[in-house]
Specification:
single chain, 710 residues, alpha/beta, SUBTILISIN-LIKE PROTEASE SBT3.1-RELATED, SBT, apoplast, Peptidase_S8_Ser-AS, serine protease
Length: 710
Amino acid sequence: MASELMVHSYKHGFSGFAAKLTESQVQKVAQLPGVVRVIPNSFHKLQTTRSWDFLGLSSHSRVNALHNSSMGDGVIIGVFDTGIWPESKSFSDEGLGPIPSRWKGFCESGKQFKPRIHCNRKIIGARWFVDGFVADYDQPLNTSANQEFLSPRDANGHGTHTASTAAGGFVENVSYKGLGLGTVRGGAPRARLAIYKVCWNVLGGWCSAADLLKAFDEAIHDGVDVLSLSLGYPPPLFSDTDERDGIAIGSFHAVTKGITVVCSAGNAGPSSQTVLNTSPWILNVAASTIDRAFLTPITLGNNKTFLGEATFTGKEIGFRSLIYPEAKGLDPNSAGVCQSLSVNPSMVSGKVALCFTSMTLGAVISAAEVVKEAGGVGLIVAKNPSNDLYPCADDAFPCIEVDYEIGTRILYYIRSARFLIVKLSASKTVVGKPVSAKVAFFSSRGPNSKAPAILKPDIAAPGVSILAATSPLDRFQDDGYVMNSGTSMAAPHVAGIVALLKTIHPDWSPAAFRSALVTTGWWNHPSGFPIFSEGSPQKLANPFDFGGGIANPNGAADPGLVYDMGTADYINYLCAMDYNSTAISSLTGQSTVCPGEESSFSGDNLPSITIPNLRNSTTLTRTVTNVGASNSIYRAVIEPPFGTSVSVKPNVLVFNRKTKKLTFSVTVTTAHQVNTGYFFGSITWTDGVHSVRSPLSVRTEILQPCSSVN
């Protein structure tokens, strides 16, 4: 009976178990000697041909981090997701050497998955974890609406996409319906993959915290070097010591074992304080666009042509009638809202429809289906300006996205012209100038709602229209590949980059890898043009949008200085968060007693500085480690946030063969006499070769939220 109740036991990274218990059993177990806490299970949500060239990792160049690292050869990337479609060409092991001898993992059999056939020298591990999920989900997993496999095989496609983005091999002549044609590959094409299927094809993909913890426990034992997780729990966030956040708990144990854990930031942007996976030991990734667009001409009957974006690869729609549904009554525009589009065959058959929306994915798909079912031949969607594209009913049906300005000009044409006609031409791929990268509209933003002094996200990476492998069960796939958007696509880009850096710097800690990425990120496009952030309206990007900037792999391979951290720093953070010693001891696996006085945490040794409640003046310290030339002199360059003064002491750092680490202090003083929002600046250490930039974010709070007013 007891064995039937047991779901998982955890033994490699931490001690504990997951079981199916009644309320009375929970009370009894909680009172047993040695039991620290009993908590309920919880669930987490799932969150290329050009992107790697955009990041400076062209396979044709012999002087970049891709080749200096032997393309990540020997590094093992663990992927927590929906599994893998092993037959994809992206997972061929052609040209790879033997499986690393230190690898302790294995491949697990299951439905339509045989280790002897489906694992190789690329996919060296494949496990599946479902017991925690089925313990709390009382519906069948495999239904006509949501096909699933009780095995590492991927029915959803999400896991296959993220795995191939991180470490897929070279596959030539891949495109999506003819768009984005080129050679598709992952960031570390010679790295090995260990697949941990923890998410299941239910309501778009959900994952149990109990299964996540078990997967972390096994991955630590198996010997992975990097973990990529494109999933998270939506706000409000659990505390860092709450086992219901399986990612925070599991990643802590992984990081203390030297495993870098890379997580997606979430897709709830552009609203502030929506960033997920905010623990300071996690490398958190926002999503950016790249310098590529799929421009689609819209030609009106007055010979004016506007450029929208789409993945329309069908035949050109010659001049057809153009309509915008208008209702009678107080709100004539209500019938033209995309998510509640009201049309009928007599109105739209053989015509192109225009609609407006402030929503995204659901609105675009539903409007396209409504217009197509009514006999329409195309749809123009006016929405918030952004480069993230959403698929229509099919790619032969044009579903072209424009911003409100262009949509309004088309609407005025409809309301003023006598003969309303429009021509929709096929999409064309445009790369490089004049297309510039931006922070994606959907990418979750800071500040950190759990710990405002911890900057999140840490870094941004490509996450819009990323072409990678998928499951053939994906209804939008084209010959086994698909374009997806989300921070889910950005995280495996950084996991692949970390794999390259791990090959170059095998002794670096997870914190050193994060520091290298944060301090070398692009704030400006390589052309020199500043990076903007999509939103309402678009604006210059700041650290709450993209952390240290867009990832710069070649810069991160040679950062000059790094801000390192270890377990003691993270325990100091936990104490400063006022978590009780029992909860901290449970997390760390060792007796921990926080200082009696109130602990302070100013980011300890993070590569960024965030001051959420500056009243007059504050001083904090940082320690940098020289990882460049032994004899180096760095000078501080300060860009103070508006209305503040910033000083650094000493403002010159001299390193030699004996002096590898130096500590400096930063004093920030505000001139503001009122509460403000955040202002941004930076502190950069430069030796003439390296520029080691730390984002600086400051908010003045003369009257703090918990203060009393007389």
